[in-house]
Amino acid sequence: MGHYGRLLLPSLPENLVAKPTLVWLLENQTPRPQRVEASYLTSGITWKADYVMVLNAADTLSDLTGWVTIDNKSGATYGNAALKLVAGDVNRAAEGRRDQRMMELAAKAASPVAASHDFASEGFFEYHLYTLDGRTTIKDNQTKQLSLLAASEVPIAKELIYYGAADYYRNAYGVPVSNQKVAVYLQVKNSKENRLGAPLPKGKIRVYKADASGSQQFIGEDWTRSSGRSRSGTTRPRRRRSRSSSPCPATGRSSPRATRTRRSTPTR
Asked: Which residue in 235, 228, 187, 224 sits closest to 202, CA to CA?
């Protein structure tokens, strides 16, 4: 107003909105009350699935647990919300710098908060829908973990696979390669007989096994693809080197010795 200083008003109007707010004025043309449901699309909320597998001493059974981690960077708190998660790559139109900014914000995760809930799954369009049993509150800037599954004594099959194709025996210059590695795979069938049976979203699985003192040791991890009912999933905890190898006289290719494997193709 042409003068330095601070402007003070005697009072504020009752209908003043200090923050950006959407206000609806609805007219009910019936004498009875009606319920209104509003749907809107927001961004900044992401989720992922993680699994932990603990092997027994004989590598024949495992305890499998799954967790869903929800990261809320949307700028709002959702209290007592009914949570539904869609597994799949939902196509969204790119918006350049906005998408990059949301990824930067999502990288700054808060400490996870664990909660015990179960999810029910169902087919939905070309995706899969997971519905939380009950309700939960997800605060703004909160990373929250919810239980997806817990199964004990799940049968597994361990396979040692050695790939003997020519491409695995020679490098780019045609020189034979020695000390080939044997891949170790753990296969689990997602079925009710194995105390599972529900479709599982894609995620990272970490494998542990107890040592002689009973302490759990981390032995490897891998990504699992989405697994439906009665389908087999395979994880590769590690690769290990073969015991010895030598060039074949006729071809110059490495010929492994003392490597005992089952020649089969894993389900990746």
From this structure: 224
Number of H helices, E strands in the chain: 1, 16
Q: Torsions phi, psi of 53, nearest 5?
A: -115, 130
- 186 backbone dihedrals φ, ψ, rounded to 5°: -120, 125
Burial of residue 240 (CB within 10 Å: 0-12, 13-18, 19+) is exposed
The residue among 94, 52, 44 whose CA lies nearest residue 71 is 44
Residue 267 has φ and ψ, to the nearest 5°, of: -85, 110
Tokens of 72: 């809320």
- The closest of 51, 39, 60 to 148, measured between CA atoms, is 51
Does 238 score more than 70 pLDDT? no
Residue 105, SS3 per DSSP: helix
Distance CA 111, CA 71 (A): 10
For range 154-161, the mean pLDDT: 92
- Judge whether 166 and 172 are in contact, CB under 8 Å: no
